[in-house]
Design brief:
alpha/beta, Spore Coat Polysaccharide Biosynthesis Protein SpsA, Chain A, 7-stranded mixed sheet, 9 helices, globular, binds guanosine-5'-triphosphate, binds magnesium ion
Length: about 280
């Protein structure tokens, strides 16, 4: 069952991460982030290195048209990162799935590379590895332009209503999950454009344990969105809505049932039988 805890920001126990829970692949999708990527990588690596015994850092860049590739090549000579670059832009969803395919540890921590999330908030998610399979950092509060906050609010409301799921922030860029779950679910993702929402809903319907934890969110300090261009907003909304309907249709055809609904009905039947 998903639940949300009050107040992001700690104080946290900043490691060490218990080694018996398994190593962690820290994964960054990167596109046109030349101004911020160095700060992001240095912050996350200094926060996690030494506190997570078995850590690898995967940086997956594609198609950048600014100096991102040059910056990353320089950083790869100095920092412990595995760098994957290609020339053609993949788009966010494909980029995330491909980036995760390079990860080798039992857990993957996939983070947007524009430093809108604090590295230290990793420690708010990490302890829940004991009891959950997918741990989502919920932007609290979301520091984006108002129209984005409104669109995201509507998007999450629609997804919740359409699929009867209890999640508040299905497009978060700060999430930790078991790698084997992504390997199982990623090949099925086809309807939505932004990876996390479709992943979370499919994981929920597959019965995995999903936790939401509030984390800090910062306004983008530099650069601009690589996805939500104002000129494309109408098309993006339409595409997401159509994807949502297609996914619902697919679930119906496959007779997929919402595990929380099944559990609730079973509990009601039991209660009725007792009276
Ligand atoms: N490799 C790769 N990364 C991408 C691609 N598109 C976006 N990204 C990265 O995905 C992350 C999320 O993109 P953003 O543009 O920050 O999306 P957003 O956070 O919703 O938008 P802003 O609030 O404006 O930052 C960033 O780290 C981008 O660099 C892509 O095509 N390929
Ligand atoms: Mg961003």
């Amino acid at each position: 069952m998903a639940n949300k805890q009050p107040g992001p920001g700690g104080p946290y126990q900043r490691g060490p991460a218990p080694p018996e829970l398994g190593g962690i692949s820290l994964v960054f999708p990167v596109y046109n982030e030349s101004f911020i990527i160095e700060q992001t990588l240095r912050n996350y690596i200094s926060e996690l290195e030494g506190r997570v015994e078995d850590l690898e850092v995967v940086v997956a860049e594609d198609g950048s048209t600014d100096d991102t590739k040059v910056v990353l090549e320089r950083l790869a000579r100095e920092l412990p990162i595995q760098l994957f670059m290609s020339d053609e832009r993949k788009g966010y969803q494909r980029a995330v799935i491909d980036a995760i395919s390079h990860a080798t540890k039992p857990w993957v921590f996939v983070v947007d590379s524009d430093y809108q999330f604090a590295a230290i908030d990793f420690w708010a998610l990490e302890p829940h590895r004991r009891t959950h399979d997918v741990i989502l950092g919920v932007k609290s509060p979301r520091k984006d332009p108002r129209y984005r906050v409104f669109l995201s609010w509507g998007y999450n409301k629609l997804m919740r209503a359409c699929f009867r799921v209890p999640y508040d922030d299905m497009d978060t860029g700060f999430r930790l999950f078991r790698r084997e779950i992504v390997e199982e679910i990623a090949p099925k993702i086809r309807h939505m454009s932004f990876f996390t929402a479709e992943f979370v809903i499919r994981a929920h319907y597959a019965g995995y344990r999903i936790k939401q934890i509030p984390v800090r969110h910062y306004a983008r300090k530099i650069g601009s969105t690589n996805i939500f261009y104002v000129s494309k907003l109408f098309f993006i909304c339409f595409e997401q809505f159509a994807g949502m309907l297609r996914m619902r249709q697919e679930f119906r055809e496959q007779g997929l049932e919402n595990p929380s609904g099944v559990r609730k009905r079973a509990a009601k039947r039991e209660a009725r039988a007792r009276t």
